[in-house]
Structure formats: structure tokens, C-alpha cells
Specification:
The complex is a heterodimer. By secondary structure, chain A is mostly helical. Helices cover 72% and strands 1% of the residues of chain A. Chain A is built from 21 helices and 2 strands. Chain A has helices at residues 3-24, 30-35, 42-53, 56-69, 71-82, 84-98, 103-107, 113-146, 153-201, 206-213, 242-256, 261-264, 273-305, 307-312, 319-368, 378-401, 408-431, 437-456, 489-505, 510-514, 516-525, and strands at residues 216-219, 225-228. In chain A, strand 1 (216-219) and strand 2 (225-228) form a beta hairpin. In chain A, helix 1 packs across helix 9, helix 8 packs antiparallel against helix 15 (319-368) and helix 8 packs antiparallel against helix 17. The termini of chain A are far apart. The model of chain A has no long low-confidence stretch (mean pLDDT 87). Chain B has one domain. Chain B has a two-stranded antiparallel ribbon. In chain B, helix 2 runs antiparallel to helix 4 (77-119). The two termini of chain B are 25 Å apart. The chains are: A mainly alpha, B mainly alpha. Chains A and B meet through helix 5, helix 6, helix 10, helix 11 and helix 13 of A and helix 1, helix 2, strand 2 and helix 4 of B.
Chain lengths: 535, 121
């Protein structure tokens, strides 16, 4: 029976490799490779955007947080949907209208392309790499757990790494998009099925379901039996800093989602800004439905299985698969596990393609070679080579850190950098005539450094561990944290904006102001926007 | 004088190019100013509203937990308010799509005009 998850994993891998083979024959040329020839349909892109966003951290992580900490976990999931309003109202359409493959395209319009692209590329690579390492470590630990000893952590990490390299190198954006679409459909299907089974357990009575949530029984750290109302706020975000940390996280989500490179690149895969808009709406419908259903997954796990059982059978992150097992047996467990695995694979592939696009298009072609390809196809070739490099580095770091490494902060860091470095400069570039190169470079640098600096001195990395905690699971700095919040957004976002603002005011660059009208017209009307085509 | 930004792999027929004075003229035109005003009237209030509505959740739950625990309709205010966030977000998205049809119409006029002027040269 233990082989069922493995078989389902292999089926998914087989299907996705088939897609990669199909896509590889359609990935000739830069527009095809980086932007799927801009021919992805609105609903398809919407599913892919949703897929990129609903990582294993959402599927397994949030279900787990709700299962253990109730209402606070659900409140945590709200921000992930609301954040898409920033993408919809402010970013998606101007970006699609004025850019080509990356967010730096929009910045380079009226600013000096080399310094701006170099910084933007650095920031993109930082966000993607951190996010990816978090996913890879999670993947390794998860696959090891799900396959019950058939595969070691190192084998799992290497396997995930190799697969993501294959998708990206051979299939480009087209393959990555379709892998993401299939995974998102599986994820939505699995979550819906699990939700229905939870409600069936309560005979489809919401009254019974919520009554059960009011009395969750478990044993606390001291072994005392406690009965808690899981709908009650405050189990996770406790005073004095809990509420502030949640607000800080909310800021990082609302400003960071619209600055995540792997989400932004997706808006270049559709024919025009109107389609980009529709794809955000599609994504919002899926993401919202998904996060509402985390109510059933998380509270279902808390009431039907209980925190005690989950704790001794794999821990918080296994809440959803364990719930599946309890409700419908090992085959359904295998199915949910395979979905979790598919989720990780698809998300790391999406991160890889955004990192490699930024490296080859922004850094290689535009910074090192001043905007000209020395020979046709060089940009795509460099992207393919860098996908190998990114994959190899991610595998190596994940293996080095090991399965118990404390990496949850890396996702918070990715969002903080996106919100504090990327978003301020994108917004100012589109909306502020006076904005200039010095402002963009200082904004990106300050946002990046502030996020990393504050995380370094936050409770995620600074704490005093008991001697029983060993190796990479230990906090990096064994001292009391200097900054009390796990999410630096509340401080780093204003610093990023301030950096961009002061950098601009302290320098003078008439060109950037002259060219503002061109960017303003292009980004708001779509005049001269990149068109769909087979290139 | 103006540092030219080289655009990689952009074929001339693929991309609309114009002189600085043409861009200025379009940006200063009444049609374009109308478009920007129409966008602002919707986007600025919508953005401010959703940000306030969203942050009301962590603020109320974090600093008035007793009040938010008030039982209501078999659940509590905290849960209902969190749930309402999803529907409010969807509602704003829906209203934006509706408003954006208007933006598209205004933008299309500007684009058509610019391309005709260009074609006539």
C-alpha cells in the first residue's frame, strides 16, 4: 500500500514530462521561451497565477496552522487573496503594456538601463532563490515523509531539482505554465473533495461543524488536557507583538505580491493588458475559493483527527494528508500527497524560470552587453544554462541545510524584499514624473538591505535554543532578538519607499522626466505594447 | 542628448515608436487626460477602501479580541469579518472589471488616433 503515493507521483511526473516534450518543440525564440509567445489565454494564465501562488506552504502550511492554532490561521490566509487587489488595480496592466519579459523592462524605460537592471536583477534573484530554497527543503522533508522511507531527503531534493531543471531548460515558459495549470486544477479538486468529505463527516450541518470547532481537545506542551474554542482569536498572535506582526505580514502581502517576480512574469504570457486583467480575476476566484476551503481542511483536521494525533504522525505540515487518510483511507492519502508534491514541483519550476529570465534578459543581455544580443538566440541559451546553475545551487543549498533546517522565514523574507524593494520602484516609475535612476537604485538597495537586515535580527534567526535543538534547526544567532517581529514589512516597506524618494530628490536627471510621458501613455493605453505572435 | 534605450529583439513593425514631441502631445491631449481622470476616480478610492477594510481585520482582532469574540449566527464576529474579506475582495475586483471596460474604450480611441496619425506620415 505504501507504494501508491509513489505510483501517483510517477504518473504526475510522466504527464508533466510529456508536456515538456510538447512545449520544447514550441519554445524556439525568445518570446516563445520567456513568454510562451504571449498566447496563453486569460483563464489559463489565471489558473497558472493561482498555481504559482498556492504553494505547498499554503496547502500544507495553512491547513496545519489552522489545525493547531485555529482562527488565527484562517485570518492569516485572508491577506493572500486581498493582496491580489493591488496586482489588479495597480500593477498588472501597466506592466503588461510597457514591459517585455521582466519588471526591470518597465524601470529601464526612462531610467538608465544598466544600473537599474543590475539592481532589479539582483533583487529578483534574491527573492526567487530564497523562496526556492524554502520550497526545496520543504519538498525534501515532505517527500521523505509521504513516501515513508522509500526515498531519502537528499534523493528527494535532487529529484525535485532535476525535474524543475528539465521543465525549464527544455519547455520554457510554455511547459512551466501548463505544469502549473494541471497542478492548480488537481489542487483545487483535491481541496474541494477533502472539504466535501469533512462536511459529510458532520452530515453537512454547519451548526455541528462549528459546534465541534468550539470544543477542540488536545494536550499542551506540559501534557495537560485542554479544551479550546478554535474560533477564538489569539491562539497564535499573542500580545504584546502578535497583532503587530500580523499587520506587518499583511503589509508584506499587500505590497509584496505585486512585486513577486514569478507572478509578474506571468502577465507577459498573455496577448494584452485586458487579458492580463481577466487573468488576475480568474486567479482571485481560484485563490479566494481555495483559502475559504482552508476552513474545512484546517478545522476539519483539528476536530476530526485532533492536534494530538497529527503531532505524533508527522507534525503540523501533515495535517491535510492525515485528514485525508482519516476520512477516506490510504488511496486518498496518496492522492493528496501527490498533489502536495506536484505543487512543490510546479512552484519551484515557476521560480526558476523567473530567475533565469531576469538573469539572461536583464543582467546578461542588458547589463553586460548593453542591450544587444551578440548572436541570435543567445538570450535563450544563457537562460537555459542559468537554469542549470540555479537548479544546482538550490539542490546544493537544500542538501547542505538538511531536512530539519529552520527555513520558514525565507518565504517571509521573499515577500518582504518584494514589498520593500521591488514594489516601491515599480510604482514610482509608473506614477511619479520626478522619479529617476538614483531613486530606483537606492530604493532597491535600501529595501533589499532593510528586509535582510531586519530578518537577521528577528526572532526567526535570533533566539536562544535549548541544548536539545541541534544542527541547522538551531537559530543562527543565539541571543535575544533585537527586532521583535518575524515580518519586517512594517519597517522595511517605508524604508524602501523612503530610499527611493530621497535618492530621487538628492539627484538630478532631466532625461527620466522627459521620457515619463512616453511611459505614461504606453502603460495606460497599451499603445505599442508587445503583441502575441510566434516570434 | 537623450540616452537611447536599446530594445532587444524588437522588430520595427512589432512596436509603435514615436518622437518625444508626439508622446508629449498625446500625454497633453484632452482624451488622455480624460482617461487618466476616469481611472483615478475609480482606482484611488477602491485602493484606499480595500486597504482600510483589510487592515481593520488584524487591528480589531488584535486589539479588541473580546469584542470580536462576540457570538453571532452560530459563529463569531471575528470569523464573519474574516470571511467577508473574501467577498469584498471579489466585489471590488468585479466592479473594477466593469469600470475598466470604460478605460478600454477611452484608451482605444487614443491608440487608434495615434496609429492613424503615424500611418498618415
Amino acid at each position: 500500500m505504501a507504494n501508491v503515493p509513489l505510483i501517483m507521483f510517477l504518473v504526475f511526473i510522466g504527464i508533466t514530462l510529456g508536456i515538456t516534450y510538447w512545449a520544447s518543440k514550441r519554445s524556439a525564440g525568445a518570446s516563445a521561451y520567456f513568454a510562451a509567445s504571449r498566447q496563453i489565454k486569460g483563464w489559463q494564465n489565471g489558473i497558472a497565477v493561482a498555481g504559482d501562488y498556492m504553494s505547498a506552504a499554503s496547502f500544507l502550511g495553512i491547513a496545519g496552522i489552522i489545525a493547531f492554532q485555529g482562527y488565527d490561521g484562517f485570518m492569516f490566509s485572508v491577506g493572500w487573496l486581498v493582496a491580489y487587489l493591488t496586482v489588479l488595480l495597480v500593477i498588472a496592466e501597466p506592466l503588461r503594456n510597457a514591459g517585455k519579459y521582466t519588471m526591470a523592462d518597465v524601470l529601464a524605460y526612462r531610467l538608465k538601463p544598466r544600473p537599474v537592471r543590475a539592481m532589479a536583477s539582483l533583487s529578483t534573484l534574491t527573492v526567487s532563490t530564497f523562496y526556492m530554497i524554502a520550497q526545496m527543503v520543504g519538498a525534501g522533508a515532505l517527500v521523505k515523509l509521504l513516501l515513508g522511507g522509500h526515498v531519502s531527503y537528499n534523493q528527494a531534493v535532487t529529484g525535485v531539482g532535476i525535474l524543475m531543471i528539465v521543465y525549464v531548460v527544455f519547455g520554457g515558459m510554455l511547459a512551466t505554465t501548463w505544469v502549473q495549470i494541471i497542478k492548480a486544477i488537481l489542487l483545487m479538486g483535491g481541496t474541494l473533495l477533502l472539504s466535501i468529505l469533512v462536511m459529510a463527516h458532520f452530515h453537512f450541518s454547519f451548526a455541528d461543524f462549528f459546534a465541534a470547532i468550539g470544543h477542540v481537545t488536545y494536550h499542551d506542551a506540559k501534557g495537560t488536557e485542554v479544551v479550546k474554542d478554535f474560533l477564538q482569536p489569539g491562539l497564535r498572535y499573542k500580545p504584546p507583538y502578535g497583532p503587530l506582526d500580523l499587520i506587518s505580514l499583511g503589509l508584506a502581502l499587500i505590497f509584496g505580491t505585486a512585486g513577486l517576480p514569478h507572478i509578474l512574469v506571468r502577465f507577459y504570457t498573455v496577448p494584452d493588458a485586458k487579458t492580463a486583467r481577466h487573468s488576475v480575476v480568474w486567479a482571485m476566484v481560484l485563490i479566494g475559493s481555495f483559502y475559504i476551503m482552508t476552513t474545512f481542511l484546517g478545522f476539519g483536521a483539528a476536530t476530526i483527527v485532533g492536534p494530538d494525533f497529527i503531532k505524533t504522525h508527522g507534525g503540523t505540515n501533515m495535517s491535510a494528508p492525515i485528514l485525508a487518510n482519516a476520512l477516506a483511507g490510504p488511496i486518498f492519502f496518496a492522492f493528496i500527497s501527490a498533489i502536495a508534491f506536484a505543487t512543490i514541483l510546479a512552484v519551484v519550476a515557476g521560480l526558476t524560470i523567473s530567475a533565469t529570465t531576469s538573469f539572461s534578459h536583464d543582467f546578461w543581455t542588458n547589463v553586460i552587453h548593453s542591450g544587444e544580443e551578440r548572436k541570435p538566440g543567445e538570450e535563450v541559451l544563457v537562460a537555459r544554462i542559468s537554469a542549470f546553475a540555479v537548479g544546482a545551487v538550490a539542490i546544493a543549498i537544500a542538501i547542505l541545510l538538511g531536512p530539519t533546517a529552520n527555513v520558514a522565514f525565507l518565504v517571509a523574507l521573499a515577500f518582504a524584499v518584494a514589498a520593500s524593494a521591488n514594489l516601491p520602484v515599480i510604482v514610482m516609475s509608473i506614477f511619479w514624473r520626478r522619479f529617476n535612476t538614483a531613486g530606483a537604485v537606492t530604493g532597491l538597495a535600501v529595501g533589499l538591505l532593510a528586509s535582510i537586515g531586519l530578518i537577521l535580527v528577528s526572532p526567526s534567526l535570533m533566539a536562544i535554543d535549548p541544548p536539545t535543538v541541534t544542527g541547522t534547526a538551531r537559530h543562527l544567532i543565539q541571543a535575544k532578538a533585537w527586532f521583535p517581529l518575524e515580518n519586517p514589512g512594517i519597517l522595511s516597506i517605508p524604508l524602501g519607499f523612503l530610499g527611493a524618494f530621497l535618492g530621487t530628490l538628492l539627484s538630478h536627471e532631466p532625461t527620466s522626466q522627459h521620457k515619463f510621458n512616453e511611459l505614461l501613455v504606453r502603460s495606460n493605453t497599451g499603445l505599442g505594447a508587445e503583441r502575441a505572435g510566434s516570434n | 542628448m537623450v540616452e537611447t534605450v536599446k530594445k532587444v529583439a524588437t522588430t520595427p513593425e512589432d512596436r509603435y515608436e514615436a518622437t518625444q514631441s508626439t508622446w508629449d502631445k498625446i500625454a497633453e491631449s484632452r482624451e488622455f487626460k480624460d482617461l487618466m481622470a476616469t481611472k483615478k476616480i475609480f482606482i484611488v478610492p477602491a485602493f484606499i477602501f480595500f486597504v482600510l477594510y483589510y487592515f481593520a481585520l488584524p487591528v480589531l482582532v488584535g486589539y479588541a479580541p473580546q469584542f470580536m469574540s462576540t457570538r453571532f449566527l452560530g459563529v463569531n464576529l471575528a470569523y464573519l469579518f474574516a470571511l467577508s474579506q473574501f467577498f469584498v475582495a471579489w466585489l471590488i475586483a468585479g466592479l473594477y472589471v466593469k469600470a475598466a471596460n470604460n478605460f478600454d474604450r477611452l484608451a482605444k480611441d487614443i491608440v487608434d488616433k495615434a496609429e492613424i496619425v503615424k500611418g498618415g506620415k
